[in-house]
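Incident log, support desk, overnight shift.

02:14 A customer reports that sequence design results differ from what the structure should imply. Their input is reproduced verbatim below. On-call engineer (initials T.W.) acknowledged and began investigating.
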């Protein structure tokens, strides 16, 4: 019971971060967004830490930044690995 709740909470955290990344990417197309405004600054600061890892490897192609595609893919793999490891750990300890 507790194992399912922990795994659900972890999966929900990944889902929320997916939504944050998607929001950041979509809002970047709006030129009128003031990224120094507190809610937008918080979103930018929390998501760009992760996205900047991929921007080092994939440079923008003209005005388009394709690094978020790889970031979404890597986050999906990370989510799968984390949930699988949690499942194995909970199975070993009998929860």
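02:41 Re-run completed on a clean worker. Output:
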């Amino acid at each position: 019971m507790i194992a399912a709740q922990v795994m659900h909470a972890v999966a929900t955290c990944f889902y929320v971060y997916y939504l944050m990344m998607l929001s950041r990417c979509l809002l970047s197309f709006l030129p009128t967004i003031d990224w120094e405004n507190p809610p937008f600054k918080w979103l930018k600061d929390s998501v760009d830490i992760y996205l900047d890892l991929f921007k080092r490897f994939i440079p923008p192609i003209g005005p388009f930044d394709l690094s978020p595609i790889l970031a979404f893919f890597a986050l999906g793999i990370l989510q799968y690995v984390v949930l699988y490891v949690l499942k194995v750990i909970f199975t070993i300890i009998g929860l």
